[in-house]
């Protein structure tokens, strides 16, 4: 006769085996998933309510068991990558494990010198699934500059970042960068003085065919300002949404904004785009010449002149 305790132990072992096999079978079931998932911050219950996959209370129990065994950690909030197959499927077990070990999804975005905030915010909104309105509000709340409040560079952020956090980084980085650069080049940092520098640099950035020309163009700007002449710079009209728009005679006649330096004396009220270090240096240390005019030749670079008659001859040579 088999002792009662042995029978009970045998039944428990059989039940454990059945449960184990059932669990293994359950974890092998394929489920549909996306290659990227957004994980909200908070508890496991909160995560289960928002994850776009078929999760249930049993999955929650398995996750808690895995965490108790030290093989699973609660994932950080944000987008994570999931290794699905061509049919957008993954086993339940691999999916639950991937929730813990998968890395956050990062994306890059590049601001090129001369580009305007109008288009860069569109890039940010598209790349990181953010609202353009939220990005504008965050930008305006965190920087004094209508334009050029972000340094041209390639930036890398996680999907799921908020508009406020993203703009806080970009504008704080720019402020620190400008202060350091101003101290290096001038030995001081005056925000108002620096904003004027950025305005000149942004026009130089738009007008110059290359970095070598930048000090010459900056010199022309300052020479014309000294003489009280209209700047008459096409680049000043490439502000905001007009960044990639060719400046025509019709545009010059119809644009009544203070950015139209064909109609209004002095500098525009704000930078007309982002600026490179070369453009900033040119604005701070312009070439000392008597040039008042320049025009692009057939080789795509500018020819500079002091007198209007010479300038007109250069135009006819185009």
In short:
The chain is mainly α. It is 48% helix and 11% strand.
Structure description:
A two-stranded antiparallel ribbon has the order 1-4. The protein has a two-stranded antiparallel sheet with strand order 2-3. The model has no long low-confidence stretch (mean pLDDT 86). Helix 6 runs parallel beside helix 7, helix 8 packs across helix 11 and helix 9 runs parallel beside helix 11. The chain is mainly alpha-helical. The termini are far apart. The longest helix has 25 residues.
Secondary structure elements and their pairing?
Layout: H1 4-28, E1 30-32, E2 36-39, H2 44-50, H3 57-68, E3 78-81, E4 89-91, H4 92-101, E5 106-111, H5 117-128, H6 132-142, E6 153-158, H7 163-186, H8 191-207, H9 214-226, H10 249-254, H11 277-284, E7 293-296, E8 302-305, H12 308-316
Antiparallel strand pairs: 1-4, 2-3, 5-6, 7-8
Helix pairs in contact: 6-7, 8-9, 8-11, 9-11
């Amino acid at each position: 006769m088999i002792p009662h305790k042995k029978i009970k132990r045998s039944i428990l072992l059989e039940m454990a085996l059945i449960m184990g096999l059932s669990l293994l079978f359950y974890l092998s079931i394929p489920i549909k998933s996306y290659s990227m998932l957004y994980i909200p911050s908070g508890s496991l219950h909160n995560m289960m309510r928002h994850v776009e996959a078929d999760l249930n209370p049993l999955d929650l129990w398995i996750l808690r068991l895995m965490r108790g065994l030290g093989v699973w950690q609660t994932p950080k909030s944000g987008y994570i990558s999931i290794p699905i197959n061509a049919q957008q499927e993954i086993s339940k077990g691999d999916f639950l494990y991937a929730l813990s070990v998968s890395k956050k999804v990062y994306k890059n975005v590049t601001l090129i010198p001369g580009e305007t905030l109008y288009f860069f915010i569109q890039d940010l909104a598209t790349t990181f699934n953010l609202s353009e309105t939220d990005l504008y509000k965050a930008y305006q709340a965190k920087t004094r500059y209508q334009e050029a409040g972000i340094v041209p560079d390639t930036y890398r952020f996680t999907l799921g970042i908020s508009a406020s956090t993203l703009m806080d980084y970009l504008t704080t980085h720019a402020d620190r960068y400008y202060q350091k650069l101003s101290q290096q080049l001038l030995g001081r940092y005056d925000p108002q003085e620096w904003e004027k520098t950025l305005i000149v640099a942004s026009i130089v950035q738009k007008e110059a065919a290359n970095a070598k020309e930048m000090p010459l163009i900056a010199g022309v700007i300052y020479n014309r300002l000294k003489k009280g002449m209209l700047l008459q710079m096409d680049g000043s009209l490439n502000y905001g949404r007009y960044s990639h728009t060719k400046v025509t005679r019709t545009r010059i006649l119809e644009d009544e904004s203070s950015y139209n330096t064909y109609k209004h004396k002095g500098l525009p009220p704000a930078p007309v785009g982002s600026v490179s270090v070369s453009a900033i240096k040119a604005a701070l240390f312009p070439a000392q010449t008597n040039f008042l005019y320049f025009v692009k030749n057939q080789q795509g670079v500018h020819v500079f002149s002091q007198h209007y008659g010479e300038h007109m001859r250069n135009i006819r040579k185009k």
